[in-house]
Amino acid sequence: MAKKVLVIGEVKDGVLRNVSFEAIAAGKTVANGGEVVGVLLGENVSGLTDELIQYGADRVIVVDHADLSSYTTDAYQQALLQVFDVENPEGVILGHTSIGKDVSPRLAMKLNAGLISDAVSIELDGEDAVFTRPIYSGKAFEKKKVKEGVVFATIRPNNIEALEPDSARKVDITNLTVDIKDLRTTIKDVVRKATGGVDLSEANVVVAGGRGVKSKEGFGPLQELADLLGGAVGASRGACDADYCDYGLQIGQTGKVVTPDLYFAIGISGAIQHLAGMSNSKVIVAINKDPEAPIFEIADYGIVGDLFEIVPILTEELKNVLV
Ligand code: FAD
């Protein structure tokens, strides 16, 4: 049976995150020929509707409200529940991002829906959407489906391919007025840490450094390599604990989960907790002076040697090819 599926677009710094487009593709599978409705929440976000449409939304609902200018759990939950009241969706898809992880269990509970979180792929089994999700820190995968009620899921960024954008698509856009009240928290100001331009959790290339990088300055050549490849710098907890970089860059069980096309593990031993955040990367390149380092067990390409010699050579060689 065809389903109506709501896909919640996620806006960061005035731009739709890629995972929103991936969620539309996921929504198409769940909808099984039904309608995929993009939902945009925020303040002055109506300029972003075109992108949702190009990437496949069959209809878009815009909820513009001053209290939605920055994410707060209360405001988003109230707004989305009012959207659900109007739309009665049979499926809801969000990105498995900080926002998706925070708001989805609350919404699923209110809808009495089964929530499948952190899906990395979706396929149809008859009429049911079957979600694959990692378990045991990525060591195994399980397949799950919602047997009855609303199919509610979050998808891991960078795993489900977005559809090809089609700029010729034209669909209905509706503005929905919501009533937001009794907020327990309001955002007065957002102070951002100065970080590089590319979002680590959505980057196609991640250049990650570990304790072997030895200092803050040691991350300079890694940043140069990342910039050359249009990627983002990440880190192990070892490097963060040693204060070589900010905890916002930590990848792993207690940090970010990344699935780039290309992951460099530089001066990282490959502890199980680190692997939990990066082992599903498509191609892994490890640089380590210890040939016995566990990271080589999961690396597609391994370079044994001193990272302070290898990284600059690699960057120069890549410059010759790319620039
Ligand atoms: P090390 O293990 O010290 O490895 C440094 C590596 O650098 C070594 O392999 C060494 O051979 C190499 N090296 C040194 N010098 C050079 C050089 N000049 N050239 C090339 N290679 C060199 N860790 C995470 O990363 N993410 C997490 O989310 C995380 N969560 C955790 C949660 C819990 C509950 C616990 C208990 C631990 C967690 N950890 C996490 C920590 C994890 O167990 C490891 O301690 C950590 O990943 C080690 O970081 P590292 O590989 O940078 O450091």
From TrEMBL:
Gene3D superfamilies: HUPs (3.40.50.620), TPP-binding domain (3.40.50.1220). InterPro entries: DHS-like_NAD/FAD-binding_dom, ETF_a/b_N, ETF_a/FixB, ETF_alpha_N, ETF_asu_C, Rossmann-like_a/b/a_fold. FAD binds at residues 211, 236-237, 250-254, 267-274, 288. SMART domains: ETF. Pfam families: ETF (PF01012), ETF_alpha (PF00766). GO terms for biological process: fatty acid beta-oxidation using acyl-CoA dehydrogenase. Its cofactor is FAD. Binds 1 FAD per dimer. Residues 5-194 form the Electron transfer flavoprotein alpha/beta-subunit N-terminal domain. Keywords: FAD, Flavoprotein. One of its GO terms (molecular function) is flavin adenine dinucleotide binding. Belongs to the ETF alpha-subunit/FixB family. This is Electron transfer flavoprotein subunit alpha. It comes from Halalkalibacter okhensis.
